[in-house]
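Quick one, tokens below. Sequence please?
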């Protein structure tokens, strides 16, 4: 299967992903490469069928939907074990990539929309990872301090998203927000309950990951 899937990705795209992974201190194993290719190929087919993923080729999915997740591993404060939620997961690309690359993390793909939840559920089933599952829920309905970390992309404005996500992350935990580099709404004030841990670039132009500690 992996040879067919790799053929659906152009070689430069796979090389760019693996170079970015190396920059984050990671080496991609053959098994992880197979899972990454499988996810990218299926998400591309999902977009062609329904438009939910936004990118219709596996190469674009890998570089624009999945590769931003590599920034998580560039943050020293981001845990490598425990429970993590991908909030507003959409098609599940970010959370699934994290689950593939670090199987000591139990990853929940959380979305309140039935369509997104179904896409995440199918992706998790196709990958067959014991550390990845889909959860249909609004972030407001999740238990307080339930997770060691949470990430989100395009959930809401910074002023709205950070308090919502902070509630579900335990004290001392990590939040990763993907956002446009110039968006000042992701610079929290002194009463926000989080402190900025750093900011990391991604392979998507103008998209960065800002990390926070709760």
């Amino acid at each position: 299967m992996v040879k067919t899937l790799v053929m659906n990705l152009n070689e430069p795209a796979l090389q760019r992903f693996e170079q970015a992974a190396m920059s984050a201190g990671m080496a991609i194993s053959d098994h992880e490469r197979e899972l990454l290719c499988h996810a990218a190929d299926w998400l591309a087919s999902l977009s062609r069928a329904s438009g939910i993923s936004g990118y219709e080729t596996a190469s674009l999915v890998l570089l624009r939907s999945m590769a931003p997740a590599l920034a998580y591993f560039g943050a020293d404060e981001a845990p490598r074990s425990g429970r993590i939620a991908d909030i507003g997961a959409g098609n599940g690309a970010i959370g699934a990539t994290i689950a593939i690359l670090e199987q000591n993390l139990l990853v929940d793909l959380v979305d309140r929309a039935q369509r997104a939840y179904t896409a995440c559920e199918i992706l998790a089933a196709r990958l067959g990872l014991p550390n990845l599952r889909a959860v249909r829920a609004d972030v407001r309905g999740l238990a307080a301090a339930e997770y060691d970390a949470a990430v989100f992309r395009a959930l809401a404005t910074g002023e709205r998203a950070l308090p919502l996500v902070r509630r579900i992350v335990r004290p001392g935990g990590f939040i990763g927000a993907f956002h446009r580099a110039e968006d000042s709404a992701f610079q929290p004030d002194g009463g926000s309950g989080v402190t900025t841990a750093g900011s990391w670039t991604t392979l998507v132009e103008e998209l960065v990951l800002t990390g926070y500690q709760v």
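The first helix runs from residue 2 to 8. Residues 142 and 202 are 29 Å apart (CA to CA).
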